[in-house]
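Hello K.,

You asked for the raw outputs rather than the summary table, so here they are, unedited. I folded two proteins back to back in the same session to keep the settings identical. This is the first:
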Amino acid sequence: MSGNSEDGALYVPLKYRRREVSGKSIRAPVVQNRTQGLAFHKTVGNTDEVKSALNLRGPAPFANSSESLLVLHAREVKQENLTPEERARKKLIEEEQRLLEDTKRAQKSALVSHDEKARGLKYKTTMKTSWVAPTKIQSLDENVIEKLREKFKILTDGDNIPPPIPTFQAMRFPQPIMRGLSAKSIVKPSPIQVQGLPVILSGRDMIGIAFTGSGKTLAFTLPLIVFALEEELKLPLVSNEGPIGLIMCPSRELASQTWDVISHFTGFIAKEPQYPSLRTLLAVGGESRSEQLKVIRQGVHMVVATPGRFNDFLSKRQISLNLCKYVCLDEADRMMDVGFDEEVQKTFSFFQHQRQTLLFSATMPKKIQDFARDALVKPVIVNVGRAGAASLDVIQEIEFVEVQHQMTYLLECLQKTAPPVIVFSKHSNEVDKIVEYFMIKGVSAVSIHGSKDQDERREAMRAFRAGQKDVLVSTDVAAKGIDLPNIQHVINFDMPDEIENYIHRIGRTGRSGKTGIATSFINNMTDKDILLDLKGLLMEAKQRVPPSLQSLYDDSTTPVEQAHASGKACAFCGGLGHSISRCPKIMRDQKRLNPAGRDAMRTDNGDW
C-alpha cells in the first residue's frame, strides 16, 4: 500500500485472510499514515469492508488453509505433465525471454527523441521518396521474387518489402554515380545491395545484416547521396543549413573511410555541369573544430560523424537537425553497447520530426533486432547469412601458444603469406610492445590504438594503405568496418573479450570474394567463455576444431542448458557457446554500470 495515500486499498495480512476463510473475527491493520507517523487498528468481523479487501487481489492464494505451498506446487507440476528435462527447459526459456525483454526496454529509447517520448508519439507511416522501381521489376511475380532472393541467399522480414533489383542500371542511379562505380570496378551489386538499396531508396527503415566485406557501406551511402542531390536540385542549401542525412560510426577510422567513399562519388557529381556540388562533413574528434565549422557555415548536405564531436556541435547549436531526414548507424551493435547508447540517445533527442533510420552491422544480436522492431517504423530486415557468422572466405587457424612464446611464434606466422598483414591485440601497451619487437627484428610496422592522437593514427593508416608499411598492429579500433581489400592474413595475438570482436577482426581479410587466413593464439590464460563461443563458430563454419577446443565444455551449465545453447546464438551477444541466461557480456555490462554491486533501491549505502 502506498505510504502517502490515505484512501488507498485496504491491506489485510495473510494470517488474517486465513482466519477469514475459517470464519473467525479479525484484528486487522486498516490504515497506516507514514507522513504523520500514525498507525491504528480496529477489530472487525466478517464485514463487507473486510470481504471487499480480501477480494481486491482476486481469490485468496490459500483457498484451503491446510494445503502448503509445496502441495500446491506439486499439483501444478502434475497438471503440466512435463518431464524434469522439459520443465527445466521451459524455465530456461522463460528466463531468457525475461532477460531479453529487460534489455529491449533499456535500449528501445535510444532511437527515440525526448519530445517523442514525452508526447507518446509513434509514427505509423513510412517516409515517402520520389524513387520508384522500374515497371518491369514491380510487375514480377511473387514466386520469381522469392527465387531471386534464394539465388542471392537473402532472407527478409517485414511487410510490403520492395523487390530485389539485380543491376545498378535498373536502380536508376544518376550517370555520375554509375561512372563512380565503374571507377571502383564495381560492375554488379552484392547481395546486401541487391535487396538493401531498393528498400532504402523506397524510404523504408531497415536493419541490414551481412558478413564482413559484403558491401554494406555502399548500401547506405548511395541512397544518401541520391537524396541529398535531389534536395539540392529542388532548393539549394544556404549558409548554416543542413544536413540532409547523417551517418554515425563508432570509430574515427571507420568514419573517415565512409567519408572517403562519399567523397569519391560526390567528386564525379561535381564534374558534371548540370549537377550541383554536394558538401560532406567529417565530424570526428582529434581534428580541427574550426575547419569543420567552415563546412557547416557553407551549408552541409551530408555528415559522417562519431557521436562525441557531433553531439558537441549539436549542444552548442552550431549545427541543426531540422532538415535531417536520413540517419544510419554503422556497426549498430557497437553503437547500442553500454556507453555508446547514451551518446546515440543524445543525438536523437535533437530530432523534432520523423526520419528514415537504418541499422547496419555484420554482428546483429537478436536483442538489437527485437528492440529495433519496436523503435523503427515498419522496418525491413535484410539478412545475408546468419547474423554474427564468420565469413566463409576466411580460413580460421587456431594455435595453442604459451604466453612466453607468443612473440617468437608471431614472427613465424608472418611467413604464412605476403604482406600486408594485420596483428590485433586487445591491450594498447601490448600493441606498443609488438611494434617495438618488430622494429628490433627489422619488420616494417605501424600501430594505432585509442591512446594515440589523431594525427598519428591517420598517418599510420595512410602509410599502411599506401604499402609503405608491411604490418599494422592495432587494438579493436581497426577491427570494425575498416576496408583493406588486399589483406591476406590477420593474426590475433590474443583473443578479444567478446566473440563479436573476433568476427570483426578476422573480417579484415577474405573481403570481396577473396580468400584470407586468420591465425589466432590461445592458451591457458584465454577466457573459457570466449573459447566456447570460438568452438561453436568453427563448427558452424565447418572448419577444423583443434584438440584443445574439441574436449571443451561448459561445466557450469546443466545438460539441459548445454543442449538448449548448442548451435543457438545468444540473443544478447550472438555467441554460440552459451545462452543469454549465462552470457558473460551481460555480466560485464552490469559490472560496468554498477561496479560496486549496490542495490539501486536502497538509500542506506548498503550492498546486496
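The second followed immediately with the same parameters:
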Amino acid sequence: MKKIFRFINFFLIIFAIIFTYLGFEKHQGNSFYYVIFSIIVNLFFIYSLNSKRLFLEIFFSTLIWLGFWFKYTMSIVFLNGVLYDSGPLSNISNIDKAFTPSIVAILAIFLSYALRQKFFPVKIIYNNELSFFEKIYLLNRKLIIFLFIIFFLIISYYNFQFSIYQKGFLYPHNISPLITNIVKWILLFGLTTFSSFLLYTEILRLKKVSIITVLVVFIEIFVSYSSMLSRALILNQTAMAYSLTKFLEIIKYKFIFFLGIFTLIISMFLVNNYFSNHFRINFAHEIGVYIKNQLIIENQKKIIEKKLKENNGGGGEVKKKSKNYDNLEVDLRKNFKVSNDPEVKPDPINMSLFVVINRWIGIDSMLAIVSSDRLGFDLFFQSLKEKKIINQHTFYESTFNVDWDGGKEIMFGEKRILKGNTLPGIITVLFYTGNYLFLFISVFSIIFIFSLLEIFCLKISNSNMIFASFISFTIAFRLSNFGYAPADSYLYLISILASLVLIFILSNYKGLFFNKFFNTK
C-alpha cells in the first residue's frame, strides 16, 4: 500500500506543478499568493495520503483539495477564470483575500491530523468470539444475501416511484414524514451499514473477500443513489473500495481484483450520471412546461377580462398581444448550468463534464463571503437560526448575493418543486465571523472530534474498517457540504447514532435471548 501512495503522491506532484504553472499567468491577483496557496494545499494533501491516516483524514483532505486548489485552478485554466457559485463576476478581484482564511483553516486541519496521530494512534484489536448475528449470517449466507438484494431493490423502487427523496427536488406528497425519514435513513445509512457488516464478517471469519458479496455491496450503493438521483455515487463507492485495501493479505490476484473494482466503479458512475442527469433535466423541463402553460392561461384570462370590460364600455376592437415565453428555456438553462455561457443547452453529457470541476465546495464560497463587508459574530449566530423554507433562497445565497444571475430560481411544478441549495461548507460558515483565531480553533476542534469518532467506530464494530470508512466518508462529505439550516444537523447526528447502534448490535450481541429460538451452534 505504501508503494501505491508513493505513486499517487508522485503523480499529484507532477499534476500540481503543471497546472499551477498554467494557472500562474491567468491568476487575476498577486501571483505570489497563488503560488503559496498552491504549495500549502498540495503539500497538505500529499501529507494526508499515507497508510497511517484515518479514513476521515484522507477523505476530508481530498475534498479540501478538490474544493479549493483543484476547483480554482481548473476554473482559471479551462473556464476563463469564472469561478462558479462565487457570486457576481466582480468578486474575483478579491481572490487573494479568499486565500488567507483558506490557508488558516488548512493549517488547523494539518495540526489536528498531526496531534491525533501522536496521541491517539489507531490500534486494531479483534474479538474472536462470534456475535449472534455473525453466526446467523454464516449459517444462512446465501439466503440473507438474497433477501438483502430483494429488500434494497424494493426500497429503491419505492423511493424512485413515489419520489420520497431525490436530490434537487422537493415533493408535496401526502406520505407521512416518519416514513420519508425512515426511507431516507435506510437509503443513506442503513443499507450500507448492513452490507458493510456482511462483507466484513466474511473477511474476518472466513478469511476471504467474496466477489459476489463485493458486487452486492457496490450494486446496493448504485441502486440506492440512482433512486435518489444522486451523482455522489462514485465518492461513496471509492470510499468502500479504499477500505478493501486494508485486507490486501487475503485478496488473491490483487491487481485483477482492484482493476475489476475500478472498472465497476467507473461503469456504474457513467450509468448513474447519465440516468440522474437525464431525469433531472426531464423533471426540470416538465416543471418548465407546467409553469409556461400556467402563465399562458393566466395571460389569456387577463385578455378576456380586459376585452369584456372594453366591450361593455362600448369600446372598439382592441389588439391584444400575449406575452412571449420563449425565454423560459434560458431560465431552465440557468437552473441546470453546464457552462459559463448561459446559452449552452444542458444534456446528460455536458452536465457531467461541468460537474467534474464545479461540484466541489470551498474557494468559491470563501470568495463570496470575503467580498462582503458584513462578516462578524452577529452574522454567524444569525446563520445558525436559519430554518428550511421552500419558497426562499438560503441564508448563504441571499446574504452574499450568490444568486446574482438568477440561476437559483425556485420553480414550482405540478408534481415537484425544483430547488437546489448552494452550500458554503463548514470552513466558510465558520469564517462568517471574520475572525481567524475562531476559524483556526473551531476547524481544529471539529476535525479532531470526528477523528476520535472514527476510532470509536472501530472499537464498537470489532475493527470493521469497511463500516468506519463508510461513516467517515459521510462525515467528510457532510462537512464539506455544510451550511443549510445548521440547527437541523441534529437529524444527521441522529442518523449517525442509529448506524452506530445498528453496527454495535450486529457485531457484539451474543444472542442471550434469541438463542432460545435459533440454533446457531
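The longest helix spans residues 254-312.

Happy to rerun anything if the numbers look odd on your end.

Regards,
P.
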